[in-house]
Amino acid sequence: SPFWNIFHPTPVRFGAFQSGDSADVLQPFAARKVTVDESARKELNNWTGGIPVLVMAVCERLFAGCSDGQTLSKTDADAAAEQVMEDYREHIETLWNDLPTLARLDVVELASSREMSRAGLLTERIELLAQRGFAAEAGGNKLRSNCRIMERHAAQRGQSLPEVQKLFSTLNDY
Question: Does the predicted model carry a pTM greater than 0.70?
Answer without folding.
Answer: yes
